[in-house]
Write a structure and sequence with these properties.
Elements lengths: L3 H10 L4 E6 H12 L3 H4 L10 H11 L12 E4 L1 H21 L3 E4 L3 H17 L12 E6 L2 E10 L2 E5 L18 H12 L7 E5 H9 L4 E5 L4 H9 L4 E4 L10 H10 L5
Helix pairs in contact: 1-5, 2-4, 4-9, 5-10, 6-10, 7-8
Amino acid sequence: MLTPAALRAHLLAARLAGVVATTREESLRSYRLFAARDPRVVIGVDPEGEWGQRDLIALMADRCGVSADPWHISGQDVIDPERTVAALDAFAERLTAVARRGGPVLLGTGHPHRLLGFYAALADALSAAGCAVLTPAQGRCVDITTRFGLRTYNLAYVRGVALVRAPGASRPGCEPGAHTHSPLPVRTALAAAAEAGGPLPELVIGDHGWVCGAGQLGFEAIGLADTDDPAPFVGEAEGSVSVVVPLDDAVRSAYYRPLTRYVLNRACLSQ
């Protein structure tokens, strides 16, 4: 079993925590946009509080370990590995709870290039524990506004994990899926599940709009988030999201494998 100390060492070595690739400038820009309620950054959360930029800096300092100094405006962000480990422990507890009930789950990612393997391993383990891994709205079209204008994507499932693909991108050798922050895919999936008469997920696992969109609709949601994604942490602070793990969400996919082993061991779901 990977110990917390070994996990912390890996987080720092892989730059999943410690000094990360995300810049302070990127994070501050996201905090400004969130404060202005830009939908590209709010990604499905409907905040109850005011959440100005200084409020968000304080929140992210508390949840992630970034600098709490509003005058710190450049350089690399820093994530406290202790906070990452503690959040992974809480993440594993929620997996344990749903596995004990054999509850249905829905997994989805806006980072398929990096995080598909992490979520797919969770889907395999939860399925083996008796949980139904849901795949509603397979192939459904989702129109998402991007910086290039309105784009149509198809909702797809790979190894039990939902993602979106551009039309025609499902051929062998094509990209695993598109990067998106939008909550529209999870809303589409949940609406399709409801229209079909269920089952509905007892737990939604993912990132970006998957976590924020599901949590805002009242589903228990847990996931991963970087320092330039304040929305999941606001959701966690206000109670619409159960657990958010602070880490760099765009390193090599292989670097997440020790996290997978750690979480599954903590959740007693190792195969």
